[in-house]
Specification:
Blueprint: H1 6-17, E1 20-21, H2 22-31, H3 42-54, E2 58-64, E3 70-76, H4 78-93, H5 101-107, H6 114-144, H7 149-176
Antiparallel strand pairs: 1-3, 2-3
Helix pairs in contact: 1-3, 1-4, 2-3, 6-7
Length: 180
């Protein structure tokens, strides 16, 4: 069957909810603000659907829509549902290896003089602040619109990570580069 990638899990998860056509998947991704926590794009949706069908995790059927236009409707198979369930168990049970671009910068910070490094890290803190504001707004939006608790958690979790990252950056600035 092959490894089921994150983009495949994103689409497969949506199809576990109900059968959909490609554009409906895109609309659902937009409506749920899933691009904040997935890397799936509109063109990749159709590539993913093709891969999932090749792996026999979904099937497709051409149906007529109300306006007499044909649509390819995708439905998860029993095998696809089981693969999804197993992958969710795995994801929820194990911390993933994280790769952060900032680590590459820190590993090579010696290439910058102290002022350059300080300026860059101050900009990094500002960029964290901007992301924090985005996730605060997303959290408020989800709560205001009665999204399920699992969706609200998708705003809270990165918000907490960003707050810790900001603390780390401030500590690094103060302890290694002489303050803000």
């Amino acid at each position: 069957m092959g490894i089921v990638l994150n983009n495949e899990i994103t689409v497969l998860g949506l199809l576990c909810e109900k059968p959909m056509h490609g554009y409906e998947i895109e609309k659902t991704i937009k409506k749920r603000n899933m691009r904040y926590w997935t890397e799936i794009s509109l063109p990749s949706i159709y590539k993913v659907l093709k891969k999932l069908e090749q792996k026999k995790l979904i099937t497709s059927e051409i149906k007529f829509a109300k306006n007499n236009i044909t649509q390819k409707i995708y439905t998860v198979t029993a095998k696809g549902r089981q693969v999804m369930k197993n992958r969710v168990k795995e994801i929820l049970s194990t911390v993933e290896k994280t790769i952060w671009q900032i680590d590459l910068g820190i590993a090579n910070i010696y290439l910058l003089n102290k002022e350059e490094a300080k300026e860059c890290l101050q900009k990094y803190v500002v960029s964290i602040d901007k992301k924090i504001e985005i996730y605060k707004k997303l959290k408020i939006f989800f709560k205001k619109n009665n999204y399920p608790q699992s969706d609200i958690a998708l705003a809270i979790r990165p918000l907490m990570h960003l707050r810790i990252e900001k603390k780390w950056a401030a500590d690094f600035l103060n302890n290694n580069l002489g303050g803000k």
